Amino acid sequence: MAEKRRAPIVGRYTQEELALATRNSGMPLEALRYDLTPAGLHYLLIHFDIPAADAATWELRIEGLVARSRTFSLAQLQGLPASTVRVTMECAGNGRGQTSPRYPSMPWLEEGVSTAEWTGVSLSLLFKEIQVKESAREIVFHGADRGFDRGVEHSFSRSLAPAEAMRDDVLVAYAMNGQPLLPQHGAPLRLVVPDWYGMASVKWLARIEAIDHAFEGVQQMGSYHFRTVAGEKGVPCSRMRVNSLMAPPGIPDYYGRRRTVDAGWVEILGRAWSGSAPIRRVEFAADGVWQDAVLDAPTGDHAWRRWTARWNAPSGAHELRCRATDESGAVQPLDPPWDVTGFGNNAAQRVEVIAR
Ligand SMILES: Nc1nc2c(c(=O)[nH]1)N[C@H]1C(S)=C(S)[C@@H](COP(=O)(O)O)O[C@H]1N2
Ligand SMILES: [Mo]
Description:
The structure is a single chain. By secondary structure, the protein is mainly β. The chain has two domains: 15-236, Sulfite Oxidase, Chain A, domain 2 (Alpha-Beta Complex); 243-355, Sandwich (Immunoglobulin-like), CATH 2.60.40. Helices cover 9% and strands 37% of the residues. The strands form five sheets. It has a six-stranded mixed beta sheet, with no helix packed on it. Strands 2-1-10-5-6 form a five-stranded mixed beta sheet. Strands 3, 4, 7, 8 and 9 form a five-stranded antiparallel beta sheet that branches. Residues 42-47, 89, 91, 143, 145, 156, 185, 198-199, 201-204 line the site of ligand MTE.
């Protein structure tokens, strides 16, 4: 595939980045207080345009290396046994805007993450009927949205290995938080792949195809790889790295977002998640002094975990941070890990606060 990678940027955001940032909203960090992000506050990442989609005539075609190709209407899928899964989804590019030089793309600071309850049909249930052949090497999921990236026209399509696609918790979802999907979240149908970065959860899902080779689509091979230098093959982005955020305490300044709190005891609340292993520990720091945060009970195998910490704030300027560790032993780094296209930045958050 032609690699016409954009040149990295040091310094001010470009008009193109601002256009992406206004189309693709993040979750306001105060929404970390909700176990489930209300649909209208869930972050958004839409590469092209939201396609015109009519739920009454929408069809999902499953074909390729399968014993029985089939086309399902939405009503047919809704007639099958339903599953609901609570999923924390994070954009692989979350944190890109904090790295320098940065790759010209969606300049997330840290707000490209949210949690929703998705309802739909388990893909493994559909596959029982369709029967994927032994010769299938990958399952490709095609979205109905289309556009260009780096000069190549394509639909947003992604693939998974059959074993990954067959997991019971991988859903063809038609509802979010108990309501029909909103247009911006993939109405009327989307894939939801728990634990993986968001790009795997293909929205406006129109076609599923079993193929006998590695899928080479732009969104599969061109993008979504960890690469230390441009042009190298790299490692595909898959499961979310361990990460955490706090809801910035106190009240913000309108323009600079800097926080003000009253001196004395401050309750800090946040969330921690990892697509690789359960959360083991969260630490909170004020001015570089780390303490263990208190973890709430988990609310699902694929959802973020709430944590709290108490901080006795002396008057003056302070820097707050938090970092999580998962059961694999992975811990968030203090500085952004280097990646050419700005994927997977799970560096510990920094929040500047003035206590008065
Ligand atoms: N068809 C399609 N699916 C897509 C995308 C897209 O642009 N088109 N964006 C992906 C990316 S990069 C992310 S992070 C998630 C975001 O899902 P959300 O907008 O519902 O939060 O959708 C994924 N699925
Ligand atoms: Mo993303």
